[in-house]
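Page 47, continued from p. 46.
Same chain as before, 466 aa.
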Amino acid sequence: MISIPQYSINKLIEQIRVGGTSTLTSNSVLTEQAYGGIIPQFGNVYQVIANSTGGAIRSSGAFGKVLFQNDSAATPVNNAAVVFDVNTGRLMTTGLNAPTSTFADLGGSNANQRRGASALLAGATRNVGIDQIDSSTQVGQATVTLLTTGDSLNRFVPTSYSSVTDYALLSNKVVSDILFSRPLSFNKSRGTKSDHFITDKNAYIGYTHNQYGFAGNSVNRNDFYLGTEAGNEILSVGALFLGSTGSIGSTYGHSSVDGFGGTGYVRGTLTPDLTLLGSVGYSNYNYTLSRSGLNGTANATTSSGSLNTDLGLTYLAFNQKGYSIQPRLGVSYGNASVKGFQEAGLTQGALGISGYNADRLSGQLGAVFAKDVELFSRPLKVALDVGVNEFFTDHKSNMNATVLADTSIKFPISSAQNTKVFGFAGLGANYQLTSSTSVYAKYEANTMNNNDSISNNATVEFKTSF
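Result:
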């Protein structure tokens, strides 16, 4: 047995070899001294206590102190520069050599990673000793990976899960885009103001694809929809049903999504040129989640429920000689709740994520500039749709993460802010195939992307009156 009362590692003394067992006591001190201008870096590992052949050895007990002394410092300090593993006798350096450094500094300026690093290191050292871990435990193993592997904090703190609510709240834009396009897609003659309103029953079926960037995550959504509307020049009511599949992607994670939604809406005439549209809907989505973890791929499943409401005004400002201009103003509100879930597939750093929610209030100001022409002796309406959208509020609650191997280790994960104001421009066309059927298509590009690239959506729809 060997008892180590004090041990300093520097360029001259790097390792103690033990032929039997190693015991550390509470009055023993381990000090790493930088020497000759050598600056310890993140990920350096030293076998400071070894067996007789220089290999790893487990020590019972723990050092009373683990200290670090810079080459230019007069005295050693207790900071976050070094971590000792009692299970292997190895000393790991973090590169955090400032006298007052803490383990949160591993995360740099990233608030989520600072909280994650601080929580994991606090949990790993809690039952061992100051700046000491035990890699025979899952939490200790996770800490070793975190301290010796580049980019490890990105794989420990899963910020990509925040875009689950972005997918759910995108229902607002999908629904409002479809409903605001209804006057154009009905393809009624605009020769007189009374012709602007619906006086028949109709059904429509379509597909829309939306691609957006939310806080560094890419959201791709495909919706097949079926709707019906009936009414007259004063009032019409309708129902819209969505079947959705899609994905959420990021550098460190991917999610596949499927679900459904339903919306009821009312369209009323306030004046011959002014129309009010209101809708209320609900959607439910299932998510199959995966991400790169500390030592493999984490997998999980969850679901969300969301409520979406829309209120909008359209105004036929100009309608002469086949040209029309129709400004619109809309307000949308959405609320989404995501169920908590637990990750599987990792032996290091698997997390449980609490349920979380988000709500968003947005406004849209736009206008449609349309022209009626003929193609093969059939009516064709071509329209340019331009405008601006703003998120008045875009709130997401924190995701509270718990390390499953030690549920006392917890930390919150906040969500990055999305682009609040974005512009859009779209080109649409509606072609009347017969007196009772028409086909409608639209493509739109917009700046709703935090990566400064262009996002887009496209829609194709077939409608029939009866």
